[in-house]
């Protein structure tokens, strides 16, 4: 590592001084009245480019170095009390806003104002109509949140001008601008100095100066190599974690976020101890997800904390990083995140914690008091999704809210969404405050098909519209295409590639893709047309400017078979609110197009398929009625709660509750009276499917806990083998899968893959996984998840040669409620009869073993299964194909 330059030596470098002047930071510090920064400093030496050895050490930066917003607030309150400051901060801020508005209205400043119009236009402010609201927006964006905001301000100046050379020529204008924004507001000046201090004391910055410039020596607008280095570093330093939300290095907003116009109203509710609940119905693109937590940070007292839920782990860290960046923090300080064992949160300084709904549910279970007394607010974001975990945590939070009300420790709940049923929410929470924020005003041009497009033709039709869009759109544009699942996503990518469109980069995005490919898919390349073909995952997790949207109108949803209780994945018509959410991905920064691969009637009413009319629902179906509730029932039982003791916006299906209770009793998790057993409590503490948890507990007792944890991690991986491509044919992939098979057990087959992988040295693994058509990224996640489960269950990393049959018996115990027995052969429209199975405790079932299973070619009398693959109509029969199966020897029973 290069030697770190000492701080005073950094200051003594003429190029550094020149570059600070180039950025306008020097001008702001010269023109700002330093006595407001620290009243104890009487004579502060000026910063002057002609005096490059100016001694920065004489400046007393205390008490502003490394302090929180609360420390600063307390400091200035003390200054006012001791008459060391002329006015409190809010008064200074209002004076500054008034002065700023007056300056821009002053006719003598018209020439300078005209030069600055392009910059202000870029950030969405019209200088010809600059009033107090615009001043507030500008302050909140760049100066309210500390040094990072100021760095962002500097970076935006750089980006606005054509190049760094023209920035040099405009230095006078920028210094004039800096004088206005520096003003005499003590807090603003403190933040400006913070930006200077943070930059000059950053070891990475010093190391950057020491590194030899091995880059292309071609001059960039006649800047010196050192200036280029500094420019590159500062731009990268300004971005920091912010790029993770938008991934293209630019702010997602191109103007004042609509929600900021409602800031006073929202903050009023957030700071009111008598307001228990707030419903914020904010249209797409309003900035609700990132701005509401920051508004809460502004009004919360020192020591108060807030949870913000995220529907999926995919965007969770990105959201936390964005809030941290915009609030002037490093991720993991005042803003952090928690997901399972992965977290980055400061228990002492933390204010906002972004958390998945499932992790919040577990946090409630771990809380000793059961009241979450360390937290004062919970924001439930994207409540329109109404997932099972979301509804469960909402119900638990409402119960906690009631209990805390009785002890004088209120818990405020915030519910936000772009497309939720606000009328139903208001009926459910009659005392809640309601704030309605309209969506973005940028026009979205809707296009509907003139005739119905069959499902199988939608990929080709999406490719057609992609070609039409790029004919009229500038390069760098992003087109986001929504398809329901991996198969249609892959077909759409292939259809677009077949067109051989110039300057096009096509990428897929779904939960089954490697993490790095998911991240790559979210990054817009300014030199090509960016085509992203995505599952509905991207409805709430992608924010990219300059985007157009194409929607298939379909979505894959887990369903429970009413007769058998088996879970299968069903392709359904997406709800109208879900489609509105997809459409709202566009229109964020300017005009965009939305193309629906169906007619307007199909959007508004529904679709006729195979002669049957299917109604398009307004909202997504209630998961509590459509999915398995075994995990939810176990969670509540372990907390000493029951479904009928909690308030749910949408009631669960009673039949599913009865079935889940019966299954848990079969697994030994519940006593006959419905109370939770010791085994049930152990199962609830293992963050995985209850059946898998039961398998692990049984295996640990039998001395094969390591094998069970390895199998569990492999099960969760879902997609282990690569998709067919030029290097991996379908035959090669199939042959590789067959080579690992253990007759009679898909679970032992998974264990066989893991053990083969774990025996390969790390330097050989990349070649090994490629040769075996396996996904190395998935197996790396399996490695991490396996260690997490071993640690969570206190299991040693060795099984000492336990027999395969012992492991099989443990699997059978874990899935004993999913025991299937062979039926008589039934004709399914194929050349030969298919063997079907029924669940042991259900009257009728047409379940079959899926293609590729280790049980496929043998007629086993009975087996247990983890779950379904799909449900298909065959000769008037619904056949459910089962995956992850395990033979059961009748003698085991």
Which geometry do the CA atoms define?
globular
Low-confidence stretches: 1-67, 84-88, 145-151, 160-254
- SS elements, strand count: 23
CATH topology of the largest domain: Rossmann fold
CATH class of the largest domain: Alpha Beta
- Overall mean pLDDT stands at 75
Please tell me how large the radius of gyration is.
30 Å
The H-level CATH homologous superfamily of the largest domain, spelled out, is P-loop containing nucleotide triphosphate hydrolases
Strand order of the largest sheet: 4-3-5-2-6-7-1-8
The helix count comes to 37
Helix content: 40-55%
> How many strands, what sense, and barrel or not for the largest sheet?
8 strands, mixed
User: What CATH architecture label of the largest domain applies?
Assistant: 3-Layer(aba) Sandwich
**Content of β-strand:** 5-15%
Q: What number of structural domains do the residues give?
A: 5
Q: Given the helix and strand composition, which structural class is it?
A: alpha/beta
Task: Report the span from N to C terminus.
Answer: 65 Å
Keywords:
single chain, 893 residues, alpha/beta, Rossmann fold, 5 domains, 8-stranded mixed sheet, 6-stranded parallel sheet, 37 helices, 44% helix, globular, disordered N terminus
């Amino acid at each position: 590592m290069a030697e770190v330059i000492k701080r005073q030596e950094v200051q003594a470098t003429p190029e550094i001084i020149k570059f600070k002047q180039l950025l306008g930071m020097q001008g702001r510090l010269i023109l700002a009245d330093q006595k407001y920064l620290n009243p104890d400093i009487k004579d502060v030496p000026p910063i002057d480019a002609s005096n490059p050895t100016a001694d920065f050490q004489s400046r007393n930066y205390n008490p502003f170095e490394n302090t929180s917003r609360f420390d600063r607030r307390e400091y200035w309150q003390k200054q006012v009390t001791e008459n060391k400051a002329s006015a409190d901060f809010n008064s200074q801020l209002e004076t500054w806003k008034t002065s700023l508005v007056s300056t821009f209205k002053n006719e003598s400043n018209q020439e300078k104002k005209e030069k600055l119009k392009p910059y202000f236009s870029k950030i969405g402010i019209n200088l010809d109509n600059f009033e107090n609201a615009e001043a507030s927006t500008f302050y909140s964006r760049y100066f309210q949140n500390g040094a990072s905001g100021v760095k962002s301000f500097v970076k935006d100046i750089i980006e606005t001008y054509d190049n760094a050379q023209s920035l040099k020529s405009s230095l006078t204008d920028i210094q004039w601008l800096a004088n206005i924004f520096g003003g005499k507001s003590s807090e603003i000046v403190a933040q400006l100095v913070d930006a200077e201090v943070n930059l000059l004391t950053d070891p990475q910055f010093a190391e950057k100066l020491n590194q030899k410039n091995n880059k292309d020596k071609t001059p960039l607008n006649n800047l010196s190599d050192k200036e280029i280095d500094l420019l590159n570093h500062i731009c990268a330093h300004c971005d920091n974690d912010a790029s993770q939300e938008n991934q293209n290095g630019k702010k997602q907003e191109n103007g004042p976020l609509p929600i900021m116009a409602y800031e006073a109203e929202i903050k009023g509710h957030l700071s009111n101890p008598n307001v228990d609940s707030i419903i914020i119905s904010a249209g797409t693109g309003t900035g609700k997800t990132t701005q509401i937590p920051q508004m809460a940070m502004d009004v919360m007292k020192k020591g108060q904390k807030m949870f913000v839920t995220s529907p999926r782990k995919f965007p969770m860290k990105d959201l936390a990083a964005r809030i941290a960046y915009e609030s002037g923090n490093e991720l993991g300080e005042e803003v952090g995140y928690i997901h399972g064992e992965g977290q980055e949160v400061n228990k002492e300084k933390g204010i906002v914690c972004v958390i998945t709904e499932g992790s919040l549910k577990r946090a409630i279970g771990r809380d000793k008091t059961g009241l979450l007394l360390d937290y004062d607010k919970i924001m439930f974001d994207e409540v329109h999704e109404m997932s099972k975990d979301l509804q469960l945590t909402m119900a638990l939070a409402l119960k906690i809210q009631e209990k805390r009300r009785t002890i004088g420790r209120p818990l405020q709940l915030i519910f936000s969404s772009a497309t939720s049923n606000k009328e139903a929410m208001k009926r459910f929470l009659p005392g809640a405050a309601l704030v309605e924020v309209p969506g973005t005003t940028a026009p979205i041009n809707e296009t509907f098909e003139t005739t119905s497009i069959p499902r199988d033709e939608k990929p080709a039709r999406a490719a057609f519209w992609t070609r039409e869009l790029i004919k009229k759109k500038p390069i760098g544009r992003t087109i986001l295409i929504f398809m329901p699942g991996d198969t249609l996503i892959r077909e759409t990518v292939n259809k677009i590639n077949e067109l051989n469109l110039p300057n096009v980069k096509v990428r897929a995005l779904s939960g089954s893709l490697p993490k790095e490919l998911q991240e790559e898919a979210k990054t817009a390349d300014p030199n090509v047309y960016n085509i992203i073909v995505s599952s509905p995952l991207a409805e709430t997790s992608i924010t990219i400017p300059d985007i157009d949207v194409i929607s298939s109108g379909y979505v894959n949803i887990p369903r429970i078979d009413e007769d058998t209780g088996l879970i299968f994945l069903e392709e359904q018509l997406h709800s109208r609110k879900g489609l509105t959410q997809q459409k709202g991905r566009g229109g964020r920064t300017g005009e965009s197009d939305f193309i629906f691969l169906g007619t307007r009637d199909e959007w508004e009413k529904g679709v006729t398929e195979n002669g049957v009319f299917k109604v398009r629902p307004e909202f997504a179906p209630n998961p509590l009625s459509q999915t398995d509730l075994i995990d939810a029932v176990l969670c509540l039982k372990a907390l000493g709660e029951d479904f009928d003791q909690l308030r749910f916006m949408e009631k669960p299906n009673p039949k599913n509750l009865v079935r889940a209770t019966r299954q848990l009793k079969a697994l030994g998790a519940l006593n006959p009276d419905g109370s939770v057993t010791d085994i049930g409590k152990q199962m609830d503490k293992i963050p995985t499917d209850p059946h898998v948890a039961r398998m692990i507990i049984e295996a640990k007792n039998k001395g094969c806990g390591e094998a069970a944890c390895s199998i569990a991690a492999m099960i969760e991986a879902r997609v282990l083998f690569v998709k067919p491509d030029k290097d991996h044919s379908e035959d090669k992939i199939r042959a590789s899968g067959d080579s690992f098979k253990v007759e009679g057990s898909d679970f032992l087959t998974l264990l066989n893959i893991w053990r083969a992988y774990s025996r390969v040295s790390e330097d050989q693994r990349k070649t090994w996984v490629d040769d075996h058509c396996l996904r190395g990224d998935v197996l790396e996640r399996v490695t991490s998840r396996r260690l997490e489960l071993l640690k969570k269950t206190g299991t040693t990393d060795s099984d000492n040669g336990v027999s395969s049959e012992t492991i099989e018996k443990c699997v059978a115990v874990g899935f004993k409620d999913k025991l299937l027995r062979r039926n008589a052969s039934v004709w399914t429209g194929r050349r030969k009869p298919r063997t079907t199975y029924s669940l042991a405790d259900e009257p009728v079932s047409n379940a079959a073993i899926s293609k590729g299973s280790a049980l496929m070619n043998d007629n086993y009398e009975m087996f247990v299964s983890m779950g379904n693959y799909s449900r298909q109509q065959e000769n008037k029969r619904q056949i459910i194909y089962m995956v992850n199966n395990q033979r059961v020897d009748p003698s085991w029973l």
